[in-house]
Amino acid sequence: MSSNASVAPTALDVLIVGAGISGIGAAHYLQRDHPGRSYAILESRGTLGGTWDLFRYPGIRSDSDLHTFGYAFKPWRDEDAIADGGKILAYLRETATEYGIDRHIRFHTRVLSADWSSEQARWTVVVERSDTGERSTLTCSWLFCAAGYYRYDEGFAPHFAGRERFRGRIVHPQHWPEDLDHSGKRVVVIGSGATAVTLVPALAETAGHVVMLQRTPSYILPVPAGDRIADGLKAVFGEERGHALARHKNILRQAAVWGLCRRFPKTARRIIRRVNIKALPAGYPVDEHFNPPYDPWDQRLCAAPDGDFFRAIRRGAASMVTDSIETFTETGLRLASGRELAADIVVTATGLNVQAMGGITLNVDGRPVELGDTVAYKGMMLSGVPNFAYTIGYTNASWTLKVGLLCEHFCRLLTRMDEGGFDIACPVVAEADMPLRPFLDFQAGYIRRAMDRLPRQGNRAPWLTSLQYTGDVKLLRKLPVDDPELRLTPSPAARSAHSTTTAPTAV
After folding, report:
1. Predicted pLDDT of residue 447
2. What is the pTM of this model?
3. Nearest to 365 by CA among 345, 384, 349
4. pLDDT mean across residues, the chain
């Protein structure tokens, strides 16, 4: 599917970094709205799909329904609204093939650095073949980073005392071994996030017993794997119209749940507790294992499709322990309470390592860009960095809802620049003393560990990173692209080619 490196153009209008769900979506909107622009997708791995190809652990799935996590332009046809990784990957491959996006992907191509020249109004991008180590240079007018937010080559693995003494096997979900047989084995899953909640019921199908060992509880809710209303809407209105209506319904539902949790956290906590009590065996210590010290949606809620996590506990195939690890032993784990957990396999579902902007080294006119010194503009560009865009999805709703809006706005920006004869777009903060705060108002550990390496956000538009879809629809889809703090200018070459009476004026 990749372009032949010997004949592929080296000067393009847009370079998209990453062939996952964001990069494929960006390519669709770009070729739909600007079919005359040349582009390529650079993918460091040997296949498309990003997260959905990388993660191979048992039960891998999305926590979000695919009517909203999928694309607005590509109906989700499967009966499972909460779908496993294989189905999502097949959907992405089908999308890339159906829209001819796969022909623009250059695999095994890792972006190392990008240098912006204001004189030339172009990026010079150094790439490396991840299979051979060969380096080469590309140029582009726009660099569009759709590489996600975490490192693909390593997961987060905290230090555990005595780890080297353990005679069993230790695995991280991000690098699941193909030869790992957990049948009949005693498995301990360390962690309480979405990955652990996914792994436990999947492993419990054949393992001897699975223990989820958590230091801090999470909110876990049973949700239907299917969507009968969506199925009914498609049956009545047809696939495309029904998909659009189901998508709208689920957007409203996500917003309602998030709004309830944020406005009435005590009420939300009581509701979740009642649901947990109903899903668990009678007398189960709910307040010990399902009572987080934070409010709902301070961190992402975990979903259990059709209550699979709770079913595994009810039938005795899985159990929970809330404690901290003192040390690994030869045969398992000794906890701070003195309790010992025997294990044949320990799974460290301990999270991700955040890597902003794909780990690309950025320079603007010879000056290094320190991401921690930049401010996010409309959640898609960086202050002081021309012709650079990125996608970061929602943390409180389906990731792709935000990505779609950002891609639409990016295409609108290109149209505005074409109309005005502009070559350069650069966000500039008007107030040097504007109050700043972290890029994401999200308390997950993997975000907190990387705060100093991420851009900041301001206290007002357009420097706020919005978490509300309805507000973003207005900002990114309906309001004008022009903004006093977005400088649009022609390139120096264009200015010199025209007289001052005919050259466009910067806005």
Report:
1. 63
2. 0.92
3. 384
4. 92
